[in-house]
Amino acid sequence: MGGAIVATEILWWIFAAGIVGAALGVVFSGSVIHSAIFLILSLAGVGAMYLFLMVEFLALVQFLIYGGAVTVLILLALMLTRMGAGEKVNGAQAPVAFMVAVALGAILLSVAVRTAWPGDTGDMPHNIAIEAVSEKLFLDFGAPFVIASVLLLVALIGAIVLARQEDGE
Amino acid sequence: MNGIDLVGPQFAVLIAAGLALVVDAVLPRQRRLIPFVALAGLALSVAWSISWVARDDYQTAFGGTLVLDRYAVFFYFVFAGIAAAVVLASIEWVERAGRGQAEYYALVLASTAGFMFLASSRDLISIFIALELSSIPQYILAGWGKDERSSEAGLKYLLLGAIASAVLLYGMALLYGFTRTTELGGIADAVAAGGDANRSLLILAVALVIAGFGFKMAVVPFQMWVPDVYQGAPTPVAAYLSVGSKGAAFAVVTRLFFEGLGPGVASDDWSMIFAVVAAVSMTFGNVMAIAQTDIKRLLGYSSIAQAGNIMVGLAAISVAGEEFVLGASGVIFFVAAYAFTNLGAFIAVIAISQRIGSDRIADYAGMWKRSPALAGVLALCLVSLTGIPPTAGFWAKLYVFNSAIRADMAWLVIIGVLNSLVSAYYYLGIAKTMFVAQPAEEATFRPPLTLSISLGVAAAGVLALGLIPGPVLSAAHDAAETLALVY
């Protein structure tokens, strides 16, 4: 039993390092296409984290929507806008942005370490039934769910209006 | 049906948005009707809100994610009024803009529904979704014009808005991680139980949340986008952004701090955050406004300063007791007064620039001789923005500064009053240009009927709130008290 836990913990650290490494790759890689591919790796790693937490539904959603749909969309958009592979993506403010990011990261880390977080991953209910998820989604959070669907419709209309070629253009 | 009834004011607005699109598709020859469909929906929304005031049967809805209380209903009226004024002020411009008319009004209405949901949200998840519902249409509307400036405004607003949303979400995630609930009441309990031990986390989470909403309020240091977006966006959209998204952000932050964080743990810390942000915003906005030659940029900087004024009320909120309500009702009243005043100023600018084709302040010379009504209303609104009686702005400032004095923040009030003097210089400078300087041409003109109506309503609102502020002040006080009842 104890061996299994240690093995899980080692795997967890490997994946954690992988996520952070891929995230750094997104920021530091020279071309946007490479960044997008690193993003897929990083998001897939987060999906694996959900598997460690035994929330299979979330893991599935993470793989399908973020690892799949969102990144495919990003790659397609890059293709359509003909962004070259060697295009420079950093501006003159990069050093300032770097310092701000490091400072923010340091603050977040020090606060996260100092905080007595309530609960433990061990207390998490395992194997949550899909019915429980749908009850939360459609009953408790029914209103935000419906508002989100209006939001999608609005975004769709807006995208069409802005992209549409008018007569005579 | 009961569920629909509880979100009736929002529902009416969304139905009108859908109807506008249907009318466009089914009756393409009757496009002129579309703005009036939008206005009818807003009227129905107001009627629905009135029926809730009459029923006086306030309750939570949808598992506590939304709530229908006096506070929410007060803002329903404010947002419906803002949307109606913006629709009336847009008609001429949208016809000439050459993009879909129905879509324009549908987006304005959808975003208004988002504001209303924000005012009634009692849960981090619904707050975030409602914020996005109100924001995304605004990004699109800011880029509605076909010139490069407008596209730039839309893109800038979208990119910075997305970053602000991410920051806000990070703060909310930290709050959730610490309290294990997204419901504001539950957060308040968890903060009261264990906030002292995790003070640094709480302050960090709240700072991130303030940063996210600070972008919408347009307070320093989250104001970089304001002048460019206000100048580049179509003027009716700039008017909408300046009052709508600012008002909604203050509505939701006030509720968040009342119901979710409240007095007690660490509240001195965030009172200090608010006070400093307020002082810096007022000073930065006013100093930058002095040098502006473009009236839309000037109104952009002035809106940063006004956000600082409203934030003085937020700083006063963190003090417990009777003053608690005082600060909140000051914020609420200020938002309503500012809505009338700034809309009036913007609509006058729309009418004038449609005629003279320029946004330069120098071109407003002698406007008094060319269109006395427009110059008069614009001057009235500028006087109100300065905070001189007998206008709405006077009572708004008095109320907010009074709450700060009761909260022992005299230094903040001194900065506020000094800033009012600075703002008088450039606000009244515009008035002087209009009344004293010689016009470049003598031809007189009148604004179109729809603009005149919305201008008249705004001016009447500014004067009515200035001469008889009692009813709205007491409504604002009642609204704030329903928040205080949570304790």
Could you explain how this protein is built, in words?
- The complex is a heterodimer of chains A (169) and B (487).
- In chain A, 75% of the residues lie in helices and 0% in strands.
- Chain A contains 6 helices and no strands.
- In chain A, helix 1 (2-28) packs antiparallel against helix 2 (32-52) and helix 2 packs antiparallel against helix 3 (56-80).
- Chain B is built from 20 helices and 2 strands.
- Chain B has helices at residues 2-6, 8-26, 34-55, 70-97, 101-120, 124-142, 148-179, 184-194, 199-217, 225-232, 235-261, 267-290, 295-317, 322-356, 367-370, 372-386, 392-406, 410-435, 449-467, 470-484, and strands at residues 59-61, 66-68.
- The mean pLDDT of chain B is 88.
- Classes of the chains: A mainly alpha (169), B mainly alpha (487).
- Chains A and B meet through helix 4 and helix 6 of A and helix 5, helix 6, helix 7 and helix 9 of B.
